[in-house]
Amino acid sequence: MRRLLLALPFALLPLAIAHAADEHDHEHASLGAHEHGVGRLNAALDGQALELELDSPAMNLVGFEHPATSAADKAKVAAVRKQLENPAALFNLPKAAGCVVSTQELNSPLFGDKPEAEHDDDDDDHATADKDAAAHEHHHDHSEIHAHYQFTCATPTALSNLDLSQVFKTFPATQKIQVQLIGPSGQQGVEATVTAATLKF
């Protein structure tokens, strides 16, 4: 299964090169630009194994990207985390497929995770430290939420489609999701929207 998702960076290489040329090249470079209203999903179905990897600006899911300090913000972050911890409902997986979560991982600075681009090198000069501080602050301005799920499905043939309509209903600030899909019929890149939320494996 890991082999399938490892193939995705090669398929996305033109996108990554375009992103690297972007004037806002981030040290924590992710595939695709940070764009409010737009999420990214990698989905791979290989035999009984289904892997889903969702990346989204925090703005799409919680409505803000700053650290949660108020009680209302903390409650919103906790509620979103709880929704993300129920992927079978979020991705509307058919009960007939018998998919059970084998592993799941949620990461975000909003969940108290450290930003990816942290440097602990004490030998850096002040200019680099200032640059790191600016990058660290910029990272908080553009907080992402990353969710990675692995399922084992008893009847994978029941997974002919991936229905993202519940994702759009749960997180209405998400307008579109750029999807890289690997399944029995090959690899495809598609864009899911509220009106076109069902993708064919």
Lateral strand order in the biggest sheet: 3-4-2-1-6-7
Find the count of extended strands (DSSP E, 2+ residues).
8
Given the helix and strand composition, which structural class is it? alpha+beta
Q: Number of helical segments?
A: 7
Oligomer: single chain
Mean of all residue-level pLDDT scores? 79
What is the string of helix and strand elements? HHEEHHHEHEEHEEE
Determine the N-to-C terminus distance.
Answer: 15 Å
Q: What ranges have pLDDT less than 50 throughout 5 or more consecutive residues?
A: 6-31, 116-140
Residues in helices, as a percent range:
25-40%
- Binned strand content: 25-35%
Report the biggest beta sheet as strand number plus sense, adding barrel if it closes.
6 strands, mixed
Using the alpha-carbon principal axes, give the shape: globular
Q: Compute the CA-based radius of gyration.
A: 18 Å
Protein name: DUF2796 domain-containing protein
Pfam families: ZrgA
Region (Disordered): 108-143
Signal peptide: 1-20
Report on this structure.
With 201 residues, the chain is of the alpha+beta class. The chain has a domain at 38-116 and 125-171 and 196-201. The chain contains seven helices and eight strands. The chain has a six-stranded mixed sheet with strand order 3-4-2-1-6-7. Strand 6 and strand 7 form a beta hairpin. It is globular and about 45 Å long.
Brief description of this entry?
Residues 1-20 form the signal peptide. The protein is an alpha+beta fold and 201 residues long.
Index terms:
single chain; 201 residues; alpha+beta; six-stranded mixed beta sheet; two-stranded antiparallel ribbon; 7 helices; 32% helix; globular
